[in-house]
Amino acid sequence: MARSQYTMGVDIGSSTSKCVIMSSAGNIVGVAVETGGAGTSGPERVVHEALKIAWASLANIDQTAATGYGRNTYEGADKTFSELSCHARGAVWLCPGVRTVIDIGGQDCKAMRLTGDGKLDVFAMNDKCAAGTGRFLEVMSRVMEVNLSDMGRLGLQADAVIDITSTCTVFAESEVISQLSKGADKRGLIAGIHRSVAVKAVGVAKRLGVTAPVFLTGGASRNVGVVAALSRELGVDVKTEPRAQLAGAIGAALLMLDERES
Fold first, then answer.
1. Residue 180's CB: how many other CB atoms inside 10 A?
2. Which sign does the torsion angle of CA 165, 168, 174, 180 carry?
3. Computed from CA positions of residues 204, 112, 141, 236, in that sequence, does the dihedral angle turn out positive or negative?
4. Which tens digit of pLDDT belongs to each residue from 179-217?
5. CA–CA distance, 194 with 213 (Å, rounded to integer)
6. Neighbours of 117 (CB within 10 A)
7. What is the pLDDT of residues 229-258, one digit of tens each?
8. How far is the CA of 28 from the CAs of 25, 78, 94, 154, 243, in angstroms?
9. What angle, 0 to 180 degrees and rounded to 10, lies between the N-to-C axes of helices 186-205 and 224-234?
């Protein structure tokens, strides 16, 4: 195959790795998400999978940009970009006109306010506790013996929300176990878990002052229950997109393309 002007963005998170391959025209030709982030085989596997989907090899990649928690350890990168810059750039590409971006990742939650022309203005983050993150959702799904992918749908079926009062993941886990032992409705508990995540994310976002439209990125964007809970807590319709988990990798590829064109 002749050499192509492909650009690759690799987002190496704490728990998952994401890869996007773009053409020189800015069209996505290959994507992949793999479990396992920094310090695991995740980055290698996700690149391999994205290349396979794009019917390409590393010889077809002109430039590679890395972002995320493990960006500085990825030897295949020509350049690295901050997670904040990449999520902002990717969010604007996925949702033109967005002004506030909330990213709920594996171990942290970030909020970014963008300028009218889509540039990162200010940000805030919570990385001191797993509560309100993807890790919190993973722990709760295991405790409740519910697939993580099913939690969003089940939470929306709740007749009433059972609030989780503990703000610490460990204590919240004990609280959920106690509620289950008393016969509490799983759907109500799941709805409470989603509200707990949303309340913490909104607390981070409100430090900046929230301006609509609001867009959710990160793994939690796949959870319709979290999206709905965020919308209720913020009082605005929080937007997302099927590829929102890839926002960091998309942004990394786009920033590399931007530099090449400047």
1. 15
2. positive
3. positive
4. 999 999 999 999 999 999 999 999 999 999 999 999 999
5. 21
6. 6
7. 999 999 999 999 999 999 999 999 999 999
8. 9, 19, 12, 32, 11
9. 50
- Provide mean pLDDT across the span 5-29: 94
Structural domains in the chain, CATH included, are: 6-86+246-261 (3.30.420.40), 97-240 (3.30.420.40)
pLDDT over threshold 60, residue 1: no
Q: Between helices 169-181 and 186-205, what is the axis angle to 10°?
A: 160
pTM, 2 dp: 0.92
**Judging by beta carbons within 10 Å of its beta carbon (0-12, 13-18, 19+), is residue 44 exposed, middle or buried?**
middle
Order of strands across the sheet with 120-126? 120-126, 109-114, 100-104, 214-217, 238-239
Confidence of residue 260 (pLDDT cuts 50, 70, 90): confident
